[in-house]
Design brief:
Layout (H helix, E strand, L loop, with lengths): L3 H5 L3 H14 L5 H6 L7 H13 L6 H14 L3 H14 L7 H12 L8 H24 L7 H11 L6 H4 L6 H10 L6 H8 L7 H8 L5 H8 L4 H28 L1
Helix pairs in contact: 4-8, 5-6, 5-7, 5-8, 6-9, 7-8, 8-15, 11-15, 12-15, 13-15
């Protein structure tokens, strides 16, 4: 983790949860929950609600097909952490091979926004929601240097599948998962940085080339890039701007996909 606060800055309920699950599983908490449960009022509560619905809510797509979409998204955005994680989750949730024609069309749609022939409209929206989730997480994983420790892959993926991507409400507080609510929480609501800065980051126009790199090539970010930002900004500011850039890129893709479906 490239930000100290994502390892050690959590509220007491989250720290207690990490400690208890670590005692039971004998595996330390992985980087995705650490990030989503850090300041959930800013990002994690809404995002976790949206994730649970997209990945395990009622859908035209099976759980395995949705994990396969996530795996392909990770490969496209060059996120090795997420690619390995979702390869494992495909095995757990049910490998969809051989792919049915609707899934093939949906994958092409998510990659280049080709109109998905033969895919029901609600199924295409469900696929966009899956992509939205992992376009955000892939960028954060690359930017914050997520890494798998021994045992985390097996323990973490099985827990995600077993609990349907849901975390106890005492950790997250209230959340209403929708793309519109995600936009409001991350880009418009009060936070440590101004909404104007976060909206600029969402468009790729903040802190020199940093926000643009998060949006378009997060895999290129290094420890040195984050260390350079620390010279002028707090870790909370870096966290918010990075999340805003990742969410902005994902929401743009989501909205462009909806426009294709409307057209």
């Amino acid at each position: 983790m490239r930000l100290h606060v994502l390892d050690h800055g959590h509220r007491l309920p989250a720290r207690m949860f990490f400690g208890l699950t670590g005692l039971v599983s004998r595996v330390p908490m992985s980087d995705v929950p650490k990030t989503l449960l850090y300041r959930p009022d800013f990002f994690g509560a809404v995002f976790l609600d949206l994730s649970a619905e997209a990945m395990r809510g009622p859908s035209f797509w099976t759980a395995g097909e949705r994990e396969y979409m996530a795996q392909r998204t990770a490969e496209r955005l060059r996120c090795p952490y997420c690619a390995v994680t979702h390869t494992e989750l495909v095995k757990i949730a049910g490998d969809p091979s051989p792919l049915r024609p609707e899934l093939v069309a949906a994958l092409a749609f998510l990659e280049d926004l080709t109109p998905p022939a033969g895919v029901p409209a609600d199924a295409a929206v469900d696929a966009l929601n899956v992509s939205l989730i992992w376009q955000v997480v892939n960028r954060l994983a690359n930017a914050f240097g997520f890494a798998l420790l021994p045992g985390q892959l097996e323990s973490g993926t099985r827990s995600l599948h077993r609990f349907g991507y849901r975390f106890p409400r005492f950790l997250t507080g209230p959340g209403s998962g929708s793309p519109a609510e995600l936009r409001r929480a991350v880009l418009e609501a009060p936070a440590r940085t101004t909404p104007a800065l976060r909206q600029a980051a969402a468009a790729g126009d903040a802190w020199g080339s940093y926000a643009a790199t998060v949006r378009t090539a997060s895999y290129r970010l290094t420890d040195e890039d984050i260390d350079h930002l620390r010279q002028e900004h707090t870790e909370d500011e870096i966290f918010e701007v990075t999340v805003a850039a990742a969410v902005g890129a994902a929401l743009d893709h989501h909205e462009n996909g909806l426009e294709v479906l409307r057209g």
